[in-house]
């Protein structure tokens, strides 16, 4: 149900009160430390285009000065003035709570007009009027419970007016045409102050406000785009099941790295939550151009919860895919019944993962490049998870030639575009980016990353199809993962309403403070443990994967019993849970509460060994020690330029600056790596023959060719997992 303007107003008031109660001392300290230009920068930061009232009578923004003249640059940013602090204290909370109904009656200081008196003055002196008349409609302002609600008299007009007469005489019941103006004034002020608090806190964050906002990196694509391109030209190589299994295992490890960073590194969690908060489907306009007010603080908790769920869900799906491939790889002589079961499960599982990747890609496109081409279906049910439904509007064919990149991207967003069709559109996008690199620079970083994630899934599906014959997608058979995942997704979504993480995550950058990210995750875990789920989110999805494995074995036995077989060969028996791939840590049990780094095979560089150092927070691994703990990583002497690059990547300091992509490529080349451009933005780094490590690292050239923020964290973790590198590995010769 959509919020009324009164509901939205009360929510904004609650947000401001909560923020001010938590951060009032810091706000006062930071604001008083800022000079005039710094205050002006904070004030303008939250305004569209940085455009604000210059003074209280500034008419350049139309009627804005008639609603909120006090929110002007001259008064707010005046050096040494506490004007803003007094305004915040009045609008949020001071020595005593100042509810909305009191703000309605009185101003910041005694004798100053309240919001009712101010709007009445603007109507009388400035001719302020609402565009609608609202016949026989009145707005109530007499208490905080009914504050801002409007009623319309449809019958018994005389009796109704008589009942309202005391409130009308007290001026707490007013015509709705006036009431809407009062609500607009209060809503605008509260919105501006909510945003301004966040900008003030950001200005005072040591070392964090001075660096660019973290960009989501272009993650590893496992050579997805090159394989897709060659397949469209009839050059797709024949792959073996072990090769496909290795590719799937690598993708699972990549997603585990992403999840571990979210759970252990506050900057990573805040980065992901921030991106998903401003791309909520509810922010897409509906058929009438309306957007839901989901930018208020109470929506941060659901977004954080959803971000963790999506990451955990992705790891679980790939874990199941790996389980199925491991069965096919370890037992090539499977009987027909079991092979059919496993292959159908595999097909259905990778279609589930394709839908997840396509959904994330669509989420970012509809919020950025394609925002004019989508509409939210206002009256459509949200399904089992309650998510808003968003659909394409109009015929996209006219975009071809006018905005070819957007045309290809919208094609990928269409629900009828399956994995087979996606190959064509991803390949054409890659060709376009190769011919016109500036086109890709127009995309937001989140769009670029989501496109790479989608390409990984599509390329994997192509690889599997080349390695073995597979059945088509089925809605009737092979539903083990489908059914259990839908059931768990729905349950986890329902339980979200019971957890409130605003004390930890409002504003979102509050997650960067000591203990806040860990506190939010712990509160979420505690809530889910005490609920009908009975486990943390991560444990619940791991348990689901194990249940799928057990049911798979049971289905095999039932199928075997029904088949009339003359073959006396024994049927392979498999354990209920899959064995962990080599070098991969087994699934965590519920009792394990430590959020340490995930497992993964690491092959070390061959050189003189050094003593193990303490844990390196830059990559979640002990300095100089592989993830499996088998051997220490040697110290490697390098030139000054290379040392600077890897120092920036592995440095523990939060204030570390960005690393240029060209500098990183050059540093890897100086270490003996072959830098192999694959296609478009995809690049592989192949280790030299002198290294015992044989695995390459494949990644995307990052957005704007700068590795920064979250991108540095993920790159450090990838290099640490594959090669055992860390902060102590490289030193200047």
Oligomer: single chain
User: Strands across the major sheet, in which order?
Assistant: 2-1-3
Distance between the termini: 65 Å
Total domain units: 3
Task: Let me know the number of strands.
Answer: 14
In percent terms, what proportion of residues is strand?
5-15%
Q: What would you report as the Rg, rounded to the nearest angstrom?
A: 29 Å
Structural class: mainly alpha
For the sheet with most strands, the description reads:
3 strands, antiparallel
Low-confidence stretches: 206-227, 229-234, 571-630
Q: Kindly report the average pLDDT value.
A: 83
**Morphology:** globular
State the helical fraction. Answer: 40-55%
Determine the number of helices (DSSP H or I, runs of at least 4 residues).
Answer: 25
Describe the structure.
There is one protein chain. The protein is mainly alpha-helical and 733 residues long. It has a three-stranded antiparallel beta sheet, sandwiched between helices. Strands 10-11-12 form a three-stranded antiparallel beta sheet. Strand 6 and strand 7 form a beta hairpin. Helix 10 packs across helix 18. The protein is globular, with a radius of gyration of 29 Å. It comes from Ustilaginoidea virens (Rice false smut fungus). This is Ipa protein.
């Amino acid at each position: 149900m959509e919020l009324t303007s009164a509901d939205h107003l009360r929510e904004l008031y609650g947000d401001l009160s909560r923020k001010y109660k938590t951060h009032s001392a810091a706000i006062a300290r930071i604001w008083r430390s800022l000079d005039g230009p710094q205050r002006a920068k904070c004030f303008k930061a939250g305004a569209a285009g940085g455009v604000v009232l210059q003074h209280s009578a500034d008419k350049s923004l139309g009627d804005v000065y008639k609603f909120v003249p006090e929110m002007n640059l001259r008064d707010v940013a005046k050096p040494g003035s506490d004007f803003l602090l007094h305004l915040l204290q009045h609008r949020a909370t001071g020595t005593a709570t100042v509810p909305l109904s009191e703000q309605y009656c009185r101003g910041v200081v005694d004798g100053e007009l309240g919001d009712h008196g101010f709007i009445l003055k603007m109507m009388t002196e400035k001719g302020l009027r609402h565009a609608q008349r609202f016949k026989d409609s009145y707005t109530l302002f007499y208490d905080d419970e009914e504050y801002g609600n409007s009623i319309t008299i449809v019958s018994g007009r005389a009796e109704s007016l008589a009942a309202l007469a005391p409130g009308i005489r007290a001026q707490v019941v007013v015509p709705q045409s006036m009431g809407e103006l009062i609500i607009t004034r209060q809503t605008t002020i509260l919105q501006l102050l909510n945003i301004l608090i966040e900008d003030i806190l950001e200005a005072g964050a040591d070392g964090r406000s001075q660096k660019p906002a973290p960009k989501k990196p272009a993650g590893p694509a496992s050579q997805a785009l090159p394989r897709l391109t060659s397949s469209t030209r009839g050059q797709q190589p024949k792959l073996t099941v072990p090769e496909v299994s290795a590719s799937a295992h690598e993708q699972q490890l990549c997603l585990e790295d992403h999840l571990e960073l979210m759970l252990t590194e506050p900057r990573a969690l805040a980065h992901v939550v921030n991106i998903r908060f401003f791309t909520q489907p509810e922010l897409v306009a509906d058929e009438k151009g309306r957007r839901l007010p989901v930018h208020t603080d109470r929506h941060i908790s659901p977004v954080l919860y959803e971000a963790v769920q999506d990451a955990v869900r992705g790891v679980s799906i790939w874990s199941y895919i790996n389980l199925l491939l491991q069965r096919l790889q370890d037992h090539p002589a499977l009987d027909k019944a079991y092979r059919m079961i496993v292959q159908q499960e595999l097909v259905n599982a990778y279609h589930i993962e394709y839908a997840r990747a396509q959904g994330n890609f669509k989420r970012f496109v509809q919020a950025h490049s394609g925002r004019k081409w989508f509409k939210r279906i206002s009256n459509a049910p949200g399904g089992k998870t309650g998510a808003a439904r968003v659909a394409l509007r109009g015929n996209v064919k006219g975009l071809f030639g006018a905005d070819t990149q957007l045309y290809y991207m919208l094609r990928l967003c269409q629900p009828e575009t399956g994995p087979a069709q996606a190959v064509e559109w991803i390949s054409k996008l890659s060709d376009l980016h190769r011919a016109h690199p500036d086109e890709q620079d127009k995309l937001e970083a989140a769009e670029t990353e989501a496109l790479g994630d989608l390409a990984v899934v599509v390329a994997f599906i192509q690889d599997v199809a080349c390695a073995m014959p597979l059945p088509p997608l089925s809605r009737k058979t092979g539903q083990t993962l489908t059914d259990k995942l839908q059931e768990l997704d729905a349950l986890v979504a329902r339980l979200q309403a019971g957890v409130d993480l605003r004390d930890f995550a409002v504003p979102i950058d509050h997650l960067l403070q000591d203990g806040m990210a860990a506190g939010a995750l712990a509160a979420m875990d505690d809530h889910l443990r005490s609920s009908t789920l009975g486990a943390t989110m991560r444990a619940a999805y791991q348990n689901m994967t194990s249940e799928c494995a057990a049911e798979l074995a049971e289905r095999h036995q039932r199928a075997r019993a029904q088949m009339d077989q003359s073959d006396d060969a024994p049927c392979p028996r498999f354990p209920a849970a899959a064995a962990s791939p080599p070098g991969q840590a087994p699934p965590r049990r519920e009792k394990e509460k430590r959020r340490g780094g995930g497992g993964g095979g690491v092959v070390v560089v061959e050189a003189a060994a050094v003593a193990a150092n303490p844990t390196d927070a830059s990559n979640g691994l002990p300095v100089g020690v592989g993830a499996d703990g088998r051997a220490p990583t040697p110290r490697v002497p390098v030139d000054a330029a290379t040392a600077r690059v890897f120092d920036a990547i592995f440095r523990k300091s939060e204030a570390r600056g960005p690393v240029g992509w060209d500098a990183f490529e050059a540093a890897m080349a100086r270490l003996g790596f072959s830098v192999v451009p694959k296609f478009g933005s995809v690049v592989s780094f192949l280790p030299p023959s002198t290294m015992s490590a044989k695995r390459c690292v494949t990644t995307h050239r990052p957005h704007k060719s700068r590795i920064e923020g979250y991108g540095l964290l993920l790159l450090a973790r990838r290099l640490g997992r594959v090669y055992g590198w860390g902060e102590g590995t490289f030193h200047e010769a």
